[in-house]
Each structure stands twice: as structure tokens, then as C-alpha cells.
Write a structure and sequence with these properties.
Helix content: 10-25%
Low-confidence stretches: none
Distance between the termini: 18 Å
Largest sheet: 6 strands, mixed
Number of helices: 2
CATH topology: Cytidine Deaminase, domain 2
Mean pLDDT: 85
Number of strands: 11
Shape: globular
Structural class: alpha/beta
Number of domains: 1
Order of helices and strands: EHEEEEEEHEEEE
Oligomer: single chain
CATH architecture: 3-Layer(aba) Sandwich
CATH superfamily: Cytidine Deaminase, domain 2
Strand content: 35-45%
Length: 127
């Protein structure tokens, strides 16, 4: 997966992200993203030990096993804003090459993708 290029994501994985965000609302949801196919398609939602708060979420990075299939992160904003905050951008740099933010109404069209620097990247949904 190259930065600043289009990323591919499985529809079922994006639907799982939307469902998780709905279930945790009004708190923020956070998890990691995985790719089984040499970083070419996001096809795994990796749920990890985390804290879900009303204006923050955090992953316990020190409790994560080393896993080369992890390519980035996903989290929700319990609002209609899916742009990264400065704290989000700092987190992006620690957790991979691609990052998704989902906002209300928590569906596939409310997901936005970013590279590790916080620059927007296009998402292509694949079956």
C-alpha cells in the first residue's frame, strides 16, 4: 500500500467498522486495521485492548503482539466530523500507513482515509 494513493478496503470490513462505531456510540471506537494480502487490501478489523471515551479513545500499544499484517488504525468521531485532530495525527505516525475515521451516521460513506501524515487518501470499496 503506497501512501497518497488509493487504498482498497473490503466492503465487509468497512461494514464491521460501521457496526462497531454504532455499538460504542456515544463513545469513540478504536481498533487496528489488517491486511492478509501483503498490504494491498484492508480486510481485517483487529480489535485490541482499548479505552473508549466520550471525546477520546486509546489503544494499549504495549499490549499488542508483533503482527506484520497490521497496516494502520480506525476510530470513530461521535459527531459529523471525520477529519483528524492534531492528537489523531500524532497517533497515526505510531500505528501504520493508513488510518480511517468514521463519523455519524456511521456508514461506509462516512469513512474517510488518511496516510500517516494525516493527508487524505481515496478509498476504493472492493467485494
Amino acid at each position: 500500500m503506497k501512501e497518497n494513493k488509493k487504498i482498497l478496503a473490503k466492503r465487509k470490513t468497512l461494514e464491521s467498522i460501521a457496526e462497531a462505531a454504532k455499538n460504542v456510540f456515544p463513545n469513540e471506537f478504536i481498533a487496528l486495521l489488517g491486511s492478509k494480502n501483503k498490504n494491498s487490501i484492508i480486510d481485517e478489523l483487529v480489535v485490541t485492548p482499548a479505552t473508549f471515551g466520550d471525546s477520546f479513545s486509546s489503544v494499549y500499544l504495549d499490549l499488542l503482539p508483533f503482527d506484520k499484517s497490521i497496516v494502520g488504525s480506525v476510530h470513530s468521531h461521535p459527531s459529523d466530523n471525520n477529519w483528524p485532530s492534531s492528537a489523531d495525527k500524532r497517533f497515526f505516525k505510531k500505528t501504520g500507513k493508513i488510518h480511517l475515521i468514521i463519523c455519524l451516521p456511521f456508514n461506509i460513506s462516512s469513512i474517510r482515509a488518511f496516510d500517516a501524515e494525516g493527508k487524505e487518501v481515496e478509498i476504493e470499496v472492493v467485494e
